[in-house]
Amino acid sequence: MKPTCGRALVAAAVAALFVFVGGGLAGAHAYVDNFLAYRGFDPPRDPAYVTQPGTLQRVLVPSPALGRSQEAYVYLPPGYAASGARRYPVLYLLHGFPGRPLAFVETVRMGVVVDSLASRHRAQPSILVMPFGSTGTFVDQEWSNEWGRFVASDLVRWVDAHYRTIASRPGRAIGGLSEGGFGAVDIALRHPHEFSVVESWSGYMQPAKIRSIYGAHLQRLAANDPMRLVVADAPVLRRLGTYFWFYSGSEDRLRAQNAAFATRLRTLHVPYRFRTVYGGHNWALWRANAFPAYVAAATRLAHG
To answer: What does the pLDDT look like over 212-222, one tens digit per residue?
Structure first.
């Protein structure tokens, strides 16, 4: 069974009960909203040296793959509006399950990461694109099938048409946390000409056996298995120079899958870096590693 954020949601519900008893329904509702947005952390805040923050936009992206428009959020780096004809690389970030895209901004603080590093010229500014990968917070799609086509084709084309991006593979990275980490690797392997950097933060490397996603007889499972896909894709990955950067917590039961994937990449001579970092499978880990994750992508993407 793949990990979820269920324990955090249960904790929020229990805490909300105490707030409800002491402060009424409005207080409970406000507490749960705050917890789901920030997971117990303080709201994100730029350091004092950031004088020009980036901007967050909510967009609806028409998707032939899904047959409707789908929600996404775009974070434009500091100075985007005033930078004239400058073009920017793009980092696509996929959320976990259950989850929504704003967690990258509200909990992981990716906006703060971009603002801080850009202000001190420690990493090139990049556009962040955070799509919503399902029809509801608790509806599991595992970023597979039409959801993968939505990201790799519909979303990428729409973003390139509406923002000043480096509209080619060298200017694109894809990453994600937990289930989004699996989705990033799976999508990148099924669409190897779209992304030059692939990141997985506490992801897994084998799809879950979910019949509603992969068919009654799991007939689509193998087509979404990174351990299999990377073998077939290895020649093109080596030729294109695709780089994999991924980590797992020292206490995360998914670490063995990640270590096995690293061994396979090494055997296939595909460029990668795998890190074991102290911790489990939680928001504190992803928040603590947001800076190195962004730097790993930004330093390898093409410059505008």
So the answer is: 999 999 999 99
Cβ neighbours, 10 Å, residue 207: 25
pLDDT tens sequence across 222-248: 999 999 999 999 999 999 999 999 999
**C-alpha separations of 241 from 17, 175, 272, 300 in Å:** 52, 17, 10, 11
| CATH fold for domain 47-298 | Rossmann fold (3.40.50)
The token pair at 127 is: 């556009």
- Among the listed residues 225, 226, 199, 227, the one whose alpha carbon sits nearest the alpha carbon of residue 286: 199
Domains in the chain: boundaries: 1-40, 47-298
Q: 46-80 burial, b for 16+ CB within 10 Å, e for fewer?
A: beeebeebbeeeebebebebeeeebebbbbbbbeb
**pTM for the complete prediction?**
0.89
Instruction: Read off the DSSP letter of residue 154.
Output: I
> Do residues 218 and 200 touch, judged by C-beta distance below 8 A?
no
